[in-house]
Structures are given as C-alpha cells and as structure tokens.
Design brief:
10 strands, four-stranded antiparallel β-sheet, alpha/beta, single chain
Length: 280
C-alpha cells in the first residue's frame, strides 16, 4: 500500500462570516497525481494555503508523512492527540508551522498568479530557491568559505533550467519571458527546493491548447524524473482528466465528490456544480 504523503482532516477555514473551506478531508498517497477541482471561488487555493502555511486553519489538521504541519483543535483534544499527559509539551507546542519550515520538510508550490522575482533573471530565480537547502552561514559566506556549495547550487540551477527547456533564456529577466515560459520557470524554482510533494496552482492558466497538452506531458515527466507526488488545482478538464490518478471536487468549500477521472466525469453532483444543475 502506498504511503500517505498528505492528509487533510476536517479542515475549515473561516474569514469572519465567510466559510471558505468547510470540513474538508482528503488524502494524497505517494507517487500520485491528485487534482482538486471546482467552480471559481470554491476554496481550492485556500486549501493550498492551509497546506503551505499561508493560513492557519480555523479548525482541523494537515498531516505530511503522518506528522502535523497545521492544526487548530479545541484545547482538550489537542492535548490528548499530541501531548499525552505532559501539559508543558502542549503549552509549548507550535501547532502550525511557518511556510519556510513546511518548504524545508519537502513541500513546494507554484501560484495561481505567477510570483517570480521580477528584477532577477531566470537563472537567479532558480538559484535563490536552491539556498533553501544551504548549509553555509553568515561567517562562511562572508569569508568565501562556501564557494564549493555555491558552485554546486549554480550548477543545479542551470541543470533545472535545462530540464524545463529554459537554458537559452537563463540570463533574461524573468518577467520578459513569454507567459508559458514563466510558468515553467516557476516550476523550476519550486523543484530547486528539492520537494517530495509539489503543489501546482492552475499551471495551465493562460495557455493555449497545445501549450496545455505539452504541460501535461511535462508534469508527468518531472513526476517520474524527480520521484514526486503532485497535487494540482486546474480548470482545464482535458489536462485534469489526462494526468490525474484521483480527483477531489469541492463546491462552496465543501467536498462533493471524489474518485477516478472516469468516476468524476459521470458524477451528477459534479455535472450540476459546473453546469448549474438540471432545470427539468
């Protein structure tokens, strides 16, 4: 049986009176490509933000390889689950990790709206991300003692650009690249942090049909080459159906369906969510 890589248990995310995610539970197993789909405003990116430390859930917990990375349970329940009979352990426990700690554990993401370092070149964007795994410190850097590690990082950055087909634009400003190449650059930057779980937030947004087809093959390629588990949000149903092992569907923050691509295509609740239901 595949190892449970990511698990969401009863996640709720509330902003004032607005419930963006409502009691959402799901799992992703090792080596899978799992898609999260739903109409605009369904809460998909909010779910990503709870996983990656942008938001702390109002209630529920997120587990990565069986360990909690975000949690917000009632005090008594938290004490039973994590602290046992040691109240000091409970009081001192940080139940939701910061985004940088989550990245170091092995979760990387891209964004719905591309967030590259605008003033940096394509090469520099990827190089910066390699520093997530650096072992040097201020002292060794100040005296140039980290040159071997920096050399490895620069080679790694160029290798990643080569893999995503951007070696020839390494010295160009990231924001001067065509939209499709900016998407690939953002993926290369995520890969530079050496993730085991890669989250892709609408990677095909703005792409034409041929670019979307190429992206699907590319996602499957990097999954194999980098031994990744992939969690993707996407509106392009051809892409979702073509690459996903399993699909979760949410509407108004609530899970309405889960299954294989074929099961989802034939699920009446999903059809109603996307097409507005049957008036007959």
């Amino acid at each position: 049986m595949s190892e449970n890589v990511l698990r969401l248990e009863n996640i709720t995310m509330q902003f004032g009176g607005v419930v963006a995610i409502n009691d959402l539970s799901m799992r992703i197993d090792e080596g899978e490509i799992v898609a999260l789909i739903g109409p605009n405003g369904a809460g998909k990116t909010t779910a990503f933000n709870c996983v990656t430390g942008v938001y702390e859930p109002t209630n529920g917990a997120v587990y990565f390889h069986g360990k909690p990375i975000a949690a917000n349970h009632p005090r008594g329940k938290m004490k039973r689950m994590y602290a046992g009979s040691d109240p000091e352990k409970f009081l001192n426990m940080q139940t939701s990790m910061t985004a940088d700690r989550i990245t170091k554990l092995g979760i990387a993401r891209t964004f719905q709206n591309i967030r590259l370092f605008k003033s940096q070149t394509a090469f520099e964007n990827v190089l910066i991300a390699t520093h997530m795994r650096r072992t040097s410190n201020i002292f060794t850097a100040a005296f140039g003692l980290n040159y071997k590690e920096e050399k490895r990082n620069r080679e790694k950055a160029m290798d990643l650009l080569r893999i995503v087909g951007l070696e020839d634009v390494a010295d160009e400003k990231a924001t001067s690249l065509p939209y499709g190449k900016q998407r690939r650059l953002e993926i290369a930057r995520a890969l530079a942090t050496e993730p085991s779980l890669l989250l892709l937030d609408e990677p095909a947004a703005g792409m034409n049909p041929q670019e979307t087809l190429d992206l699907g093959a590319f996602i499957q390629q990097i999954k194999r080459d980098f031994n990744l588990t992939v969690f993707v949000i996407e509106h392009h149903m051809d892409l979702v159906m073509g690459i996903s092992d399993r699909i979760y569907v949410i509407e108004f923050g609530k899970l309405i369906a889960e299954g294989t691509p074929e099961e989802i295509q034939n699920n009446q609740a999903v059809i109603d969510a996307y097409l507005g239901g049957n008036d007959e």
